Amino acid sequence: MKAMMVVGTTSHAGKSLLATAICRILNRKGWRVAPFKGQNMALNAYVTGNGGEIGHAQAVQAWAAGILPTVEMNPILLKPQGDMTSLVILKGKPVGRISAADYYEQFFEPGWQAIVESLNRLSEDYDMLVCEGAGSPAEVNLQHRDLTNMRVAKHLNAPTMLVVDIDRGGAFAHVVGTLELLEPEERALIKGIVINKFRGQRSLLQSGIEWLEARTGIPVVGVIPWLDQAFPAEDSLSLMELRSSNSTSDINIAVIRLPRISNFTDFDPLEAEPTVSVKYISPKPPLGHPDAVIIPGSKTTIPDLIVLHRTGMAEEIQNYIAAGGTVLGICGGFQMLGKILADPEGIEGQEGRYKGLGLFPIKTVIAGQRVARQRSVTSNFPQEGLPVTGYEIHQGRSRLMEDATGTSFLFDDPSLGLVDTGQSVWGTYLHGIFDNGPWRRAWLNHLRQQRGLKSLPTGVSNYREQREMMLDTLADLVEPHLNLAPFLPPEES
Question: Is the pTM of this model over 0.90?
Answer without folding.
Answer: yes
